[in-house]
Design brief:
Blueprint lengths: L2 H20 L6 E5 L9 H22 L12 H13 L2 E2 L4 E8 L5 E10 L10 E9 L5 E6 L3 H9 L6 H20 L2 H7 E16 L7 E10 L1 H14 L3 E6 L13 E3 L6 E12 L3 E11 L8 E9 L1 E2 L2 E2 L15
Parallel strand pairs: 1-3, 7-13
Antiparallel strand pairs: 2-4, 3-4, 4-5, 5-6, 7-8, 9-11, 10-11, 11-12, 12-13, 14-15
């Protein structure tokens, strides 16, 4: 073989090795820490491994713009469906090669980690560009994943955790889990879950900013809020229409509290009339491929005493901005006292 042919062969080999190496996605390593004095369960190492496998595959699929290969995922059906719905609507990836997070260990051996860093990349966006989000991942007592959902933002979660005088700690965490799942269902465009979580006789009030012409001599334009009362069936019909119109949806909850815009703590209140009912006030940001808005959301939840899943009896929404002026939550539609319990 002459020098020229040898050089070509070596060059081709080097290029092939470079292409092969460039296509390799570094594995994501996960380290889960526990509080001092808490015994480290044997399943924690398994949980670290299982989550690392999933995050690594997510990164590979996102960079390659391919489907997820789930055969090596140690997940139950519920968590796998949740992950795949999220992936189908708004693909994402983990921006850290080393994830180190605190893990909650519960009495029954199950575990939960709350701050898995993700970058959401709506359809059409390039790898490396997107909005920061965090995921909550739950594990069973063997380290298998039982839930994968988007988390409330850090400020919201902190507000819900530190305001213990309103609702006891255990109930706060349960409510937080259901709010996270509720929010995730919108991002997944999962109308079946939303239908299940609303009571059949739910009261749903939505506000809309409309522009009208003033009756004054100047005849200028002005904005006002029109409120619409809907049944569960009407709301779901309109919601499904919105799901079909949008390629992606990103709903965020933040700033809980009666004075939530300043980070107030009265975000979760328990009824003094019916101890099974709780009111939650949130600031909601809705962003989608063809529409966005900001406003105040109120949810009235009922947590049955027999341990069944909670349901929503009241959902109200009002815009935060009208005519360039920031509005405050209207107590007539965003407190427990506003509704007949």
């Amino acid at each position: 073989m002459d020098m020229r042919r040898r050089f070509i062969c070596v060059f081709i080999a080097l290029v092939s090795m470079w292409v092969w190496g460039a296509g390799q996605m570094k594995a994501v390593t996960v380290t889960l820490t526990i509080d001092e004095g808490v015994d480290r369960p044997l399943a924690l190492s398994r949980a670290e491994h299982n989550l690392g496998v999933i995050l690594t595959e997510i990164n590979r699929a996102q960079q390659a713009k391919s489907i997820l290969t789930t055969k090596n995922f140690s997940m139950d059906d519920f968590s796998l469906k949740s992950l795949l719905r999220l992936w189908a609507v708004t693909p994402f990836y983990c921006d850290d090669e080393e994830v180190v997070e605190r893990c909650w260990i519960f009495k029954n051996g199950t575990m939960m980690v709350s701050h898995i860093p993700l970058i959401i990349t709506p359809e059409g966006e390039d790898f490396g560009v997107g909005a920061y989000q965090e995921a909550v991942v739950e594990f069973d007592n063997k380290g298998n994943i039982t839930d994968f959902r988007l988390a409330l933002d850090a400020h919201t979660a902190e507000s819900m955790e530190r305001c213990g005088s309103v609702v006891e700690k255990e109930k706060q965490m349960i409510i937080m889990q259901y709010i996270e799942r509720f929010r995730t269902a919108y991002n997944q465009r999962d109308s079946n879950y939303i239908e299940k979580i609303f009571s059949d006789d739910a009261l749903i009030i939505t506000g809309k900013v409309v522009t009208t012409r003033s009756n004054s001599d100047m005849g200028g334009l002005k904005q006002k809020v029109e409120y619409t009362k809907q049944t569960k069936q009407q709301y779901l019909r309109n919601l499904k229409r919105a799901f079909r119109r949008n390629k992606w949806i990103d709903v965020k909850f933040s700033e809980i509290g009666e004075h939530g815009e300043e980070g107030g703590c009265a975000g979760i209140t328990r009824s003094t009339v019916d101890k099974t009912k709780y009111g939650v006030r949130l600031r909601q940001e809705w962003n989608s491929s063809n529409y966005s808005d900001e406003g105040y959301l109120f949810l009235l939840w009922k947590f049955p005493e027999d341990g069944r899943d909670p349901i929503i009896h009241v959902r109200t929404w009002q815009p935060e901005w009208v005519g360039g002026v920031r509005q405050q939550p209207d107590d007539d539609i965003s407190t427990l006292g506003a509704f007949d319990l």
